[in-house]
Design brief:
The chain has helices spanning 4-15, 30-38, 49-58, 76-79, 92-104, 128-136, 138-141, 161-179, 199-204, 214-217, and strands spanning 20-24, 43-46, 64-67, 85-89, 109-115, 146-153, 186-192, 209-212. It is α/β, with parallel strands linked by helices. It has a single domain (4-217), classed as Alanine racemase (TIM Barrel, Alpha-Beta Barrel). The longest helix is centred in the C-terminal third of the chain and has 19 residues, at 161-179. 39% of the residues are buried. The structure holds pyridoxal-5'-phosphate.
Length: 220
């Protein structure tokens, strides 16, 4: 059995003051989340809307819930009342749906654009060019109930550290470029990159948010 509280404390001690931890709890039982919560930790990431909603219902209400998975438009409404940050947004259509559901709930929902940085076919995300097109469009700029507050990316799953580093760096450079062009609903504050296998590299390359599951809760 992993010692959840110890693992969280250990990782937090490695982060430095500019990087936050999102503990990825997908597939893990409520008792694991409760154990983390009881140790004082309150920021969880899930990749399925239904699972996140049912955990939300069962746990204390001061938890910050992050949606880190690929998202279908028709599921947005279920989490719109409470989700804290949506990491994996990769289309204008999805942003428009989130905007509509946020408006119904009288709130502004923070989102990250998922950028494609790996050279693996299974990873979702926008190219740099698509990102500019999206952010510069008036359709995007008219959305008043969402805020894009940064970028998210996943590096290639490989032992080649220099490759992973280069991918994280390319995301960081795009982040820095966009920072110069902030608008009403686009501010570059969070750079979500780094998982159990590569978070130390991600931090070196400027990550502000690491998403870590198995290094805390054990293998899924
Ligand atoms: C599962 C998942 C993680 C965490 O992965 P670990 O290797 O268990 O740390 C991070 N980000 C996303 C998008 C995930 O789906």
């Amino acid at each position: 059995m992993p010692n959840i509280a110890n693992n969280i404390a250990q990782i937090c001690s490695e982060l430095g003051e500019n990087t936050k931890l999102v503990a990825v709890t997908k597939t893990k039982p409520l008792s694991d989340l409760q154990e983390a919560y009881d140790s004082g930790f309150k920021r969880f990431g899930e990749n399925k809307v239904q699972e996140m909603c049912s955990k939300y219902e069962s746990l204390p209400k001061d938890i910050e819930w992050h949606m880190i998975g690929h998202l279908q438009s028709n599921k947005v409404k279920y989490m719109a009342p409470f989700v804290s940050l949506i990491h994996g947004v990769d289309s204008l259509k999805l942003l428009q749906t989130i905007d509509k559901e946020a408006k119904k709930n009288n709130r502004v929902i923070d989102c990250l654009l998922q950028i494609y940085i790996a050279d693996e076919e299974t990873k979702f995300g926008l190219s740099a060019e698509e990102t500019y097109q999206l952010l510069l469009s008036s359709d995007f700029q008219n959305l008043a109930h969402i805020r894009v507050i940064g970028l998210m990316g996943m590096a290639t799953h490989t032992d080649n550290q220099e490759k992973v580093r280069a991918e994280f760096r390319s995301l960081r450079l795009l982040f820095e470029e966009l920072k110069k062009q902030e608008t009403q609903n686009m501010q570059m504050k969070e750079l979500s990159m780094g998982m159990s296998g590569d978070y130390l590299l991600a931090i070196e390359e400027g990550s502000t948010m690491v998403r870590i599951g198995s290094a805390i809760f054990g293998h899924r």
